[in-house]
Amino acid sequence: MRKKVIFRGVALPYLLLVPQLAVTIVFFFWPAGMAVWQSTLRQDAFGLRTEFVAFENFLDLFGDALYLNAAWNTVIFSSSVAALALGAALFLAVQADKHIRGAGLYKTLLIWPYAVAPALAAVLWLFIFHPSIGLVGRAFGAIGIDWDYRVNGGQAMTMVVIAAAWKQVSYNFIFFLAGLQSIPTSVLEAAAIDGARPFRRFWTVIFPLLSPTAFFLLVVNLVYAFFDTFGVIHALTRGGPGNATETLIYKVYVDGVQNLNFGSSAAQSVILMVIVIALTAIQFRFIERRVHY
Amino acid sequence: MHRRTLLTGAMSLGVAAPAIGQTQPIEIQFWHGLAQPLGGMLEKRATDFNATQTKYRVVPTFRGSYPETMVAAIAAFRANNAPHVVQMFEVGTGTMMGAGRAVKPVHELLAETGVQIDFNDYLPGVRGYYSLSDGRMMSMPFNSSTTIVWYNKDAFRRAGVDPDKFPETWQGVAEILPKLKAGGGTAVPMSTAWLTWAQIENFSAIHDIPLATLANGFGGLGTELRINNPLVQRHMQALVDWQKDGSFRYGGRNNAGEPAFPNGEAAIMFTSSGFRARVQREARFDWGVAMLPYYQGTPNAPINSIIGGASLWVMNKGPAAGGGRSRDEFQGVAEFFKYLSNPEVDAQWHMDTGYVPVRRASYAIAREKGFYRDNPGADVPIEQLLRGGGTLTDNSRGIRLGGFVEIRTIMEEEFERAFQGQQNAQQALANATTRGNQVLRNFERANRG
C-alpha cells in the first residue's frame, strides 16, 4: 500500500535531505562523538593537562557505589513516575470520557500543567511541601507527622516523584482521552448487552483496546523520567538528602558542571545515550508487533 | 561538553580584534557572582573606578551564583575568551591555585606593573587564605565574611536565659538548649546554614585542629582529610543527637537553612556575617550576634576563625601560548585592584554590605565613623577573625583543597545520612574522608602532569 515517489536522478533527493542531515550531524553526531572521545580522557578543569585513560572512566563508574545508587534511584524514580502519571491520567481520562457537565472546561484545565516549565512546577510544589512555608508541609507538621524532606530520603523521593508525574499527567491524559474516544461504542454496547458490568467492561474491553496507546505512553514516560526531570530535581532537592534523589541524569550534571570532572561526566552521558537508544529501539520494534488489538 | 562546543562556536563568531585607539579606553572584563542588592554595590565600585580615570574601563558582568561564575570562567578560558578578572568564592581557591597558566598570580601582576598594595595591613586571616605559604599573594582579597552566631534575644528571655550573654562554650550551649526547647517559643532551638563551613571547617580552625594534612593543603597536592578526629566526632555526634531529640534542625545545604532565623523558627542560627542586611530587614524581634562557641578544655582554643566570601582572580585569555593579554590590560587590572584596596573604599564596602573590612586601616575608619556604636555587634566577625592574637596557625590559615566544592557536597551528603539516622557521626566522617580523599587524589593526578 505504500506510495513510492520516484525521483529522476539522485541530486534532488540528496539536496532535500541536506538540511536534516546537517542538523543531525551538527547537533547530534558531532557532540555525541565529542562525548565519546572525552569519555576516554582525564583532564584538569582548565583543559591544560590531558591524559588518555581508555576505559578507566567507565570502569571507575561501575565500581562506584554512588553510581550504582544513582542507577537504582533512577529505576525507582522512573517506574514510580510512569506508574503514577499513567494511572492518574487514565483515571481522569475515563472520567472525562463520560457525559458530564462542563466537560470542555474540565479537559482544558487538565491540560494546563503541561505548559508549566519544570523549574516553575518544582517551585509550585515547594510552596506545597516545604515544612515551614508549604501548605501541606505545615499541615503534616500540625497533625504530628514528622515531615521534612530535607532530612528524609523517602519523603524527598516521594515529593520529586509527585512533582515529576504531575507534569506528565496532562500529556498522558490527552492521549488516553483520544484513545478512549476512538473505541467504537458498538463494542461497548455489545458487551453491555451480554451483561458485562462497567468494571468488567473496562478491564476486558476498554483496557485491551487502549494498550497500544498505553505502551507508547509508557515508553514516552520512561524517557521523560530519565532525561527531562533534571529541572524538578534540581529545584526541589538537588539530589539530596544524602544521594537519595540523585538520578543518572542529575549525576551527569553534578560531576560535569559542578565538579568539573569532564571525563567521568562524558562517560556517564555515553551510558545514558546507549540507554535511550535501547529504549527507542524497543519502542519501534514492539509497538506495532507485540501490542495489538 | 555540549555547552563548551557551543560556546566555542559562539565565541569565534563574536570575537573581533579590539581596536585600541588613543581615545578608546582599554576594557577590563570583570565577571562576578553577587546577586542583587550586593551585585549592584559591587558594580558601583567599578563605575566609581572608571570615573577616577579615562585610560581603562572596567566592565562588570553578573554571571550567576559563585559556582556558576566559576564554571563560566573556566569554560570561557577553554574557549580562549576568559575575562580579565573573575570573582571566585573561597571554596574555589584550591582549584584556581592549581590552574597553572590559566591564572596570573597577583604578586606577579603587581611586580610587572610596578603597582604597590600594602598587603601587610590586611587582616591575617584574609591575607593567609589567598597567599602561597611563603606569603606571596595569589589573588586579590575583596569580599570576605566569616561564620558567626545569630540568636533571638526575645526567645532567650522567654526561656529564662540571659539574652545579653551568648554562651562562650559548647558546654554552655548544651545547657541552654533544653530551656530554649521548653520555653523559647520557637519551632526549634537551634539550626545552622553552611553545615560544613560553620560546623566542621571553622570549628576545626578555632580549635586549632587540622582539617587536612600538609597544613590544610597549603603544603601541596598530596593532602589528606583529617576530619575524622575525636573532637569533630564529638561535636557532630552532638548535632546528630540534638537533631534526634528536636533541639537542633538541619536546614538543608549551603545557605538554604538561613530563613529559619529571621522568620523566628530557630532561636540560634550559625551563618555568615554577611547575613546582617537580611536580618535587619526581616527580623521582627530583638536579636544579637556572638562569636562561635568552643569546647572548653581544648588546648589553644579558641583562636581565629577562617573566612568565606570571595576574592578576585586575574585570568589569562586562554590555553594558547603567551596567555593573550597585553601589558596595558594588566596595568589596568592592577590599577583597579589598587583602587579597591584603598581603605576608604574598603570601609565603605564593609559598611554598605556587612562583609568584613579586609584591612586594619578600613576597620579603623569604620570605627571612627561610629559604625559599631550605631550597629552593635557589627564588629563581632572582625574580632573573631583576630581572636587568639591574630597569629595564624597551620590549622587556622585557611583551607586549600582541590575539588573542595565536591568535598563539601560529600560531607553534606554523609551528614544528611547521619541526620536521617542511617549512620552515626563517626561513620559519616569516615565515609566522607574516604570519598573526599578520592577527590583529592583525582585532583592531584589531573594537576601534576
TrEMBL record, chain A:
<keyword id="KW-0813">Transport</keyword>
<protein>
    <recommendedName>
        <fullName>sn-glycerol-3-phosphate transport system permease protein UgpA</fullName>
    </recommendedName>
</protein>
<dbReference type="Pfam" id="PF00528">
    <property type="entry name" value="BPD_transp_1"/>
</dbReference>
<keyword id="KW-0812">Transmembrane</keyword>
<comment type="subunit">
    <text>The complex is composed of two ATP-binding proteins (UgpC), two transmembrane proteins (UgpA and UgpE) and a solute-binding protein (UgpB).</text>
</comment>
<comment type="similarity">
    <text>Belongs to the binding-protein-dependent transport system permease family.</text>
</comment>
<feature type="transmembrane region" description="Helical">
    <location>
        <begin position="70"/>
        <end position="93"/>
    </location>
</feature>
<feature type="transmembrane region" description="Helical">
    <location>
        <begin position="266"/>
        <end position="287"/>
    </location>
</feature>
<feature type="transmembrane region" description="Helical">
    <location>
        <begin position="205"/>
        <end position="227"/>
    </location>
</feature>
<comment type="function">
    <text>Part of the ABC transporter complex UgpBAEC involved in sn-glycerol-3-phosphate (G3P) import. Probably responsible for the translocation of the substrate across the membrane.</text>
</comment>
<keyword id="KW-1133">Transmembrane helix</keyword>
<keyword id="KW-0472">Membrane</keyword>
<feature type="transmembrane region" description="Helical">
    <location>
        <begin position="105"/>
        <end position="128"/>
    </location>
</feature>
<feature type="domain" description="ABC transmembrane type-1">
    <location>
        <begin position="71"/>
        <end position="283"/>
    </location>
</feature>
<dbReference type="GO" id="GO:0005886">
    <property type="term" value="C:plasma membrane"/>
</dbReference>
<feature type="transmembrane region" description="Helical">
    <location>
        <begin position="12"/>
        <end position="32"/>
    </location>
</feature>
<dbReference type="GO" id="GO:0055085">
    <property type="term" value="P:transmembrane transport"/>
</dbReference>
<keyword id="KW-1003">Cell membrane</keyword>
<feature type="transmembrane region" description="Helical">
    <location>
        <begin position="173"/>
        <end position="193"/>
    </location>
</feature>
<dbReference type="InterPro" id="IPR000515">
    <property type="entry name" value="MetI-like"/>
</dbReference>
<dbReference type="InterPro" id="IPR050809">
    <property type="entry name" value="UgpAE/MalFG_permease"/>
</dbReference>
<dbReference type="InterPro" id="IPR035906">
    <property type="entry name" value="MetI-like_sf"/>
</dbReference>
From TrEMBL, chain B:
<dbReference type="GO" id="GO:0042597">
    <property type="term" value="C:periplasmic space"/>
</dbReference>
<protein>
    <recommendedName>
        <fullName>sn-glycerol-3-phosphate-binding periplasmic protein UgpB</fullName>
    </recommendedName>
</protein>
<comment type="function">
    <text>Part of the ABC transporter complex UgpBAEC involved in sn-glycerol-3-phosphate (G3P) import. Binds G3P.</text>
</comment>
<dbReference type="Pfam" id="PF13416">
    <property type="entry name" value="SBP_bac_8"/>
</dbReference>
<dbReference type="InterPro" id="IPR006059">
    <property type="entry name" value="SBP"/>
</dbReference>
<keyword id="KW-0732">Signal</keyword>
<comment type="similarity">
    <text>Belongs to the bacterial solute-binding protein 1 family.</text>
</comment>
<dbReference type="InterPro" id="IPR050490">
    <property type="entry name" value="Bact_solute-bd_prot1"/>
</dbReference>
<keyword id="KW-0813">Transport</keyword>
<comment type="subunit">
    <text>The complex is composed of two ATP-binding proteins (UgpC), two transmembrane proteins (UgpA and UgpE) and a solute-binding protein (UgpB).</text>
</comment>
